[in-house]
Structure formats: structure tokens, C-alpha cells
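User: I'm putting together a teaching handout on how sequence relates to shape, and I'd like one worked example. Could you take TMEM205-like domain-containing protein from Symbiodinium microadriaticum, show the sequence you're using, and then write out its predicted structure as C-alpha cells right after it?

Assistant: Happy to. First the sequence, then the C-alpha cells directly below it.
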Amino acid sequence: MADESLSGHEIPEERKSTAGRSPSTALQLMPALLLSLLLQLADSRICKIVSLLGAAYAFGSNVWLLRYGPRMYAVCCKESRWLGKEAFSTLQAACFPEFFALQTAACLVALGGRWATASVWDVANLAMMAAIALALINLFGLGPKTTQLMASLYQQHLKDASSSAPLLSDASKEAKKKFGTCPAKGMVHGISMLLDLMNLGAVFAFICAVALD
């Protein structure tokens, strides 16, 4: 069955390119890294408070994404006459780099606060290190890859589909069918979601380890 969840609209040019994003994204992490270093000199009570706040943000934002991300996707697909998958991917390209940057920053702050008050290699620190590694993979690896892949797929869809009747023509339906069965798209998205779930589990393990300490 052909995929009817595409609107036929093109993603804005500024959302297609990932050039220059990595340096700017890395700069967004610098305040969190600096705060983590400064916490090594701070009072232990302040370190614990900041650490828990960082973990709470990382956990809560991830739960929000896993709950409402699929709902946003479903709404965009359902309202394909004026939204479609293109709208969801545009939102992803606009918001996800900052989302994963803030998630990583929160994990860095949580680790810095814990590091200042406990053994470097305790269970909580190891769990948060794992969470940071997973967040970085999504931030600098899978996130940009997803943006590039989706933009190229939509561009190909527009080339294959009829510009005069994008939702009704046989060419459009065939293009949508090919789009919906693209294995690379599903694989990248699946890996990203898996890493996000693992990040959530690692942050939860950190919170539990701190609570039981």
C-alpha cells in the first residue's frame, strides 16, 4: 500500500544542511563543561543539588521526547494534506540538535556534581558516563545523519512525483511507496530511538545509585 502520509511540500533549505552545526553544537556544551569543572571546587551540598537537577532534566526531557515525539509524528502523518512527514522532519531538524545538546549538557552537570562528592568510578558516575556517550552519538552522529537522509529522500520524492497533483498521481503514489519502505531511514531512526532508551535507562540507574548511596 502506498504511503499517503507525505504532503508533497519541500523542507526549507536551511533545515537540509548540517554544515557548521557540529562546532556550534559543541559550543553549547561549553557552559555545562565549565560548570562541571567549577563544581569540583564547590561545597558538597551545592554539588549534590546541581547534580540532581541535571539528572532530573535529562530524565524528564527524555521521557517527554519518547512520549510526545511519536504523537507529533502520528499527527503530522494523519494531517498529511497540510503537514505530512516533511513537517515532522523539519521540526526534528530545527529542534533536535538543541534538544540533544541540552540533554548532554544536563548529563555533564550531573556527572560533575557527583564526581565532586564521590569516588570517580562508583556506579552512579559510570552510569552517567554511559548516558553522556549515548547522548553524544545521537548529537553528533545519528542526528545529522537523519537530517541528511530525510532531506535527500524528500527531494527524490518531489522529483519522482507529479508537481501538478502530488497526492493523486500514479508517479506520486509510487514515490511514496518507495519512500515508506526505505530501509536506511528505518534503521537510523531505530538505532537513534534505541540509544535514547538506553540513555534513559542509564540516567535512571544514576538516580537510583545516588538515592541508595
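A couple of points you could highlight for students: The helical segments are 13-16, 21-38, 44-78, 84-115, 123-160, 170-180, 183-212. Residues 44-212 form one domain.
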